[in-house]
Every structure is written in structure tokens, then in C-alpha cells.
Amino acid sequence: MKDTFQERSIALYCRVSTDEQAREGISLDEQQERLKAYCRAMGWSEEPLLFIDDGYSAKNLDRPELNRLLKEVKKGTISKILVTKLDRLSRRLLDLLKLIDMFQEHNVSFISISESFDTNTPSGRLTLQVLGAVAEFERERIRERVFENMLHAARQGKWLTQSPYGYRLQNKELVIYEPEAQIVRNVYDWYLNKGLGYYAIAKKLNEEGIPSRQKKEWSIRAIKLMLTNPVYKGTLFWNRMDSSKSKRVKKDDADWVVLEDACPAIIDQATWEQVQKRVNKKQMAPRAQTSPHLLGGLLKCGRCGSGMSIGWSGSAKNRYRVYRCSANKNKGTCTSKQYRADDVESWFKHGLLKLADSINSQMIPHLIQKAAENEESTIEQKIRTAKNRYKRKVEAYTAGLIELEDLNEEKKRMEQIIAEVQKTENASSVDVKKLEAMVKEKMNNVIDAIDVLPVPEAKSLIKTIVEKVILLDEKDIEIVLNIQ
User: Could you name the active-site residues (predicted)?
Assistant: First the structure.
């Protein structure tokens, strides 16, 4: 079997900078002669290829002849690379290891004759492993220093990356950029008050010719990121994601850096919280949102609770739309019958009118109770999260991983969250008349829109006030309101 190394060429790499030649008397001719003599001593009779960089520093790898050598390595034409000393290739250990990794990937031996370093021998590979361990330690120390500096800057309220849409950076601090900030406000309003979803908002912005920061079209992902970014309520979050691995993962929330009121807010706190409630609620399928049928995605079967899908019935000359229980249609597990869609939508409109007329001060306590139950669950979650964060910080302090100052900061943060929650609970008295007026206004807007707007737009408005519609029987429907 032929030795594949012998079918390829030996490369001699020589380098000298002007300063080195003047200071140390290192010449290119001397390097070439020593390398050729080594080849003769090893019995390698073939004529080697020369790669000579004259007057180039080893501080970086951007050198003409080195670049040409690396191209030949990638082509597979080189078997061995010889240098007189390791620093001829690079003076930086990390760069040196990076090049050696490439050589090994292409089955190329690397030999430095002064240090008796040959990656094709056991001792050479051992030396390489030691150098690699030192380099890894150096990388970790650099990473630690960078992290500590960035952590300090973040705690001072400095913004550490590219400014988000709606802001500009001045002295590493965020300032509102009004032309974009107004777009952010519009997006929050369309999502919360107009009932538009991510897709509909992205489409609307693109149709209006409003570019994103990168001058590209808006996407569903970009809209969701905007609606969930806490910076818009003035909160700075940093160190949430671990980017050291190939796939970014969310870190434990105890490791996050969180600063409230760290930058000017574009969206008020109450609006941002309401948007998060809707974001975290199970969303209607995109297909249902754009369905040309008024109750698509909203209508539920009164017998089994499954969604009711649209279909067609009747003869070829007399086809009509019907709503049918999905469990009945797909599984046969429900005995619900199908209903004419026009009839169901008519019952819904009539029921919504009756509901709007009957909204009064007596119904409001029921709505308040429902909202309070949701709010109580949210409050408990906030307190539980804050206490868990503090508990983990105590464990980290006990293990000597953080300083007492960090622990005290976390304690203050937990106490602040609990105090704000208690303040909210104490001020939880509701203006019944104001809530009644708000509910009536929303319902009247929906009623007015149903027969005027296209179905997808009317449905978006319906979703701002109606959580679901339950079809119990002929002319018997239940409308569940969604009051935030």
C-alpha cells in the first residue's frame, strides 16, 4: 500500500519581518538552508515547495505566501510543512493551534526543527495537547475578564449590544428614536386592541412599506420578539442566553442581570403586561385567524368541548356552509350534529347584542372575579420566581461562587417585587362604572364591525372581547368574554 504522504509535496515555510532581520540578523536564506538540510538528513529526496513571506509580521495570519500555503493544504497537495521555529508560523498560541488543527484535518504533518516538534510523532502530539490545554486556559481567562467587564457595564445600565428597534445608542445608553418608537406603539396597539396576530402585523407593515432596522421585510419572528422584549417597558435584561454552545439555550433565571427602569420606556408597564398575557395564552391557529368564516377558531362544541370546523353540505346546486364538531368529523367520538354556518353566525350576533344590552353593574363583579383569579395566579408566580432566584443565590454564596454584594442585591430585588405586589393588591379596588363603560364600548365596536369589515378583520376585533363561543344546541349559544 502506498504512503499517501509521499504522493504529496513537502512545504518549507519561511518568514521574516524587517525589524527582526535588523535586530536579530535572521535571514530567509539561512532558514531555507536549514530546512533543506533537515530534509536531506531525513532522507526526503524530493524537491520541496517554498513559501516565503519577506517583511511580514507574525502578529496576524494575513500574509500572501501563508495564504497560498493554506490553499494548497485544503487542496490536499501538501504532506508536511516545515519551519525553523514555531514563531515563524505565528507568535500567538491561539493562531498557531488554529493552523495546526487545520493541518491535522487535512492529514498534514507540522514540523518545527528547532523545537524538535513533529505532530506526526507521539511526543509531538503530547506537546500539542499541552499547548492546547494552555491555550484553552487562556481562552477561559479572556472570556472571564470580558464577562466581568460586561457584567459591570450591564449593572450600570449600559447597553452592550446593537440597539433594538425604536432606540438609538448615545454613550452606550439607549435613547428613544421617535420615528421607530411610533411603529413599536402601533404594533402593540394592533396586537392588543385590534386583535391582529404576528402574521397580520408583519403583513401590514410590509404592505405599508415600513422597513425593519436591517432594511428587510418584517417576519413573524421579528414581531414576536418586539412584543416580548422587556426593554420597551424600560427593563434591561442581560445574560439570559448561553451562546457558548452551538445551539443557544436560556440560562437559569438566577444568572440573569435585571435592571428595572434602566432606560426610557416606549410602552407603559400595564400595556406590556397585558400583551404578555395574550402572548402566553394559547393562540388561535394562523389558518383559523385568516379563515373567511366569522367563528372559525372560536366556536366550540357544547357536548365535548372540541373545536368546530367549517365544511360544506347540500347538493351540487345548493351548497351551503356548515359548522361541525371536529371530534365527530375526525374520530366519530361525539354525537353532535352539524349546523348551518349562516344560522350559527346569526345566533352569535343576536347573542352579542343581548349581552351588550344586559351588561350592567350587576355583571361586573363576575368579570372582576374572573380577572382577579387570573391576576392572583400571575402574582403568585412572580413571588415564587423571586424567592427561587434568591434561594439559588444563597446557595451560590454559600458555595463561594458569588460575593455578599451580589446576594444583597438579589435580596433587595426580591423584597422590591413582593412590596410592589402587595401595593397592587392593596390598590385593587375597581371602578365598576369605568369597567362597565369599557366593556360596553368594546362590545359595541365589535357589533358595528361584524357587518362592515372583512371577516378576518372583524374576527380580530371579536378576539379582543370574546374568548370562545360554545354551541350548545339550536339557537342556544354561550359567549365567554375575555376581559383583561
Answer: 17
